[in-house]
Design goal:
502 residues; six-stranded mixed sheet; 19% strand
Length: 502
């Protein structure tokens, strides 16, 4: 950055001194500096930082595959409302018009002490074309990968020709099916539900997703249909790192997930904004398993969005919060936009590791390449530390290069620098270039420690406020010496005054 130019370039001799310093000497110096903090007023928060527990990486664990319950039906019968009622929270996007849900979306649910996977699907129609046909295919796949199925019918409308077509599809699957007469808000509606016997799926179960009527009894019935361990789902792996795929609409996020998964896992269409709910999928790339989350494209600021787009944006932010690393997909055939930069800033604010995937690289010509390099230099200078991968989600070109980029970003995100080495670096930096005077006084760094990782967070105990450019100077040196490629770094201060003598 421009205001950091006054600070000197990296001294290679300093790097050698820090890296070759014996750990015992570095630790001894750090202990002496920490002991000096006893002369300053420290609060409970300071003590917590200084006595923070050592980081212990999560172990890879395996768990039995949870049974899978899929919810299917024609459009706008209340499937997503039923999902929200079962989950006990507004998770699935709900709007009073058909076609809001498009992909099959999985959620972890629990009832009566039993955990299971709940799958929401788009509306199924037998003669759908275009994007609606893709939605119907996703619902059929959801049935194939389910242990039991909730078939939701609108009791106010009764059995339709489309419902009868769904029944034929369900019978061909040979899966246990529970027929739900949704929108049965009172006993009178229960009588109307009796007409659904004509579908030939047995006794219809009256319930109201909107009001929660009979939903508890419905779940009790579902538990009798679900096996203890799924007979169809892949083994659930607790260890795969979670990767959120972010980007503007129509930059190729869903195509990237489909190519990585080796199947048409999510709906892909030229219509911008096809994806609205985050979709989880375990994929294997170059021999390693990852959990990918394909998210809705972020088009405009949340307060300018309406209806399903508003909630989809919130779901995207929630998916990012649950992820460990974000792959921001950028369309190289278009100019890097303010939306691209805003999405990158969203990742930085969340503290997640970052990989930049420049998609549609196979469509890049020489003229556009020159402009792109200039845009990257000017607009993405603040994330120059993020690994870059040039890919084609459509053809799968260089997709395998995502793995080392993701591994590098996550390794940096997990990194913890020994306190001794960090304080040795601070001592060298202060000797090399001390902080400028402020109001005739020079702030001193008393002690430094890495308070956390994921992302790396450092705390400096100082005698005064450190200028932002000086903290950026420290951050730059941390990157130059210890790497930290692919992760944001946070440097916080705790200004403390010397304890007054009695």
């Amino acid at each position: 950055m421009a205001d950091d130019d006054k600070y000197p370039e990296l001294d290679e001799q300093m790097v050698d001194r820090i890296q070759t310093m014996p750990d015992e000497d570095a630790d001894q110096r750090a202990r002496a500096l920490r002991a000096g903090l006893t002369d300053y007023d420290l609060d409970e928060g300071d003590i917590d930082v200084l006595e923070g527990a050592e980081w212990d990486p999560d172990a890879l664990t395996y768990a039995p595959a949870l049974p899978v319950l899929a919810i299917v039906g024609r459009p706008n019968v209340g499937k997503s409302a039923m999902v929200n009622r079962i989950l006990g929270r507004r998770e699935a996007v709900v709007e009073d018009k058909p076609g809001v849900t498009r992909d099959r979306v999985s959620y972890k649910a629990e009832w009566g002490g039993r955990r299971f996977t709940l799958v929401d699907t788009g509306g199924w129609e037998p003669d759908a074309i275009g994007i609606d046909r893709s939605v119907a295919m996703q619902a059929e796949i959801a049935v194939d990968l389910a242990d039991a199925v909730l078939f939701v019918v609108d009791v106010n409308v009764g059995a339709t020709a489309t419902d009868e077509a769904v029944v034929r599809m369900l019978r061909a699957s040979h899966k246990p099916v529970i027929l739900v007469a949704n929108k049965s808000d009172d006993a009178r509606k229960d009588l109307e539900a009796a007409s659904l016997w004509s579908l030939g799926l047995g006794e219809p179960f009256p319930a109201s997703a909107l009001h929660g009527r009979n939903v508890a009894d419905l779940l009790d019935l579902c538990m009798t249909k679900l096996p203890a361990v799924s007979t169809v789902a892949k083994q659930e792996i607790g260890g795969p790192r979670r990767v959120a795929i972010l980007g503007r609409p129509n930059v190729g996020k869903s195509s990237l997930l489909n190519k990585a998964a080796g199947e048409e896992r999510v709906v892909v269409n030229e219509l911008a904004g096809t994806t609205r709910d985050p979709v989880d999928e375990q994929v294997e790339i170059a021999g390693r398993v990852w959990t990918f989350v394909d998210t809705a494209g972020i088009r405009k600021r949340v307060h300018l969005q309406q209806g399903a787009d508003f909630y989809a944006s919130l779901r995207t932010s929630a998916a990012l919060e649950k992820a460990e690393v974000a792959v921001v997909v950028i369309d190289v055939t278009e100019q890097i936009s303010t939306q691209d930069l805003r999405i990158i800033d969203l990742v930085l604010e969340s503290g997640r590791a970052l990989v930049l995937a420049f998609n549609k690289w196979d469509l890049l010509d020489d003229d556009r390449r020159r402009y792109l390099e200039r845009e990257i230099e000017q607009d993405l200078d603040h994330v120059s530390w993020a690994p870059r991968v040039n890919i084609s989600a459509r053809t799968g070109r260089h997709l395998e290069k995502l793995v080392p980029a993701l591994e590098l970003a996550l390794e940096s995100w997990d990194t913890r620098i020994p306190t001794g080495k960090f304080n040795a670096l601070l001592a060298e930096l202060v000797a090399e270039h001390p902080h400028p005077l402020r109001s005739g006084k020079q702030p001193r760094i008393l002690f430094g420690t890495q308070a956390a990782n994921r992302p790396p967070t450092f705390v400096l105990f100082t005698t005064g406020f450190l200028d932002p450019q000086y903290r950026r100077f420290i951050t730059r040196r941390l990157r130059e010496i210890f790497g930290f490629e692919g992760t944001p770094i946070t440097v916080n201060m705790r200004v403390r005054e010397k304890r007054k003598r009695p």
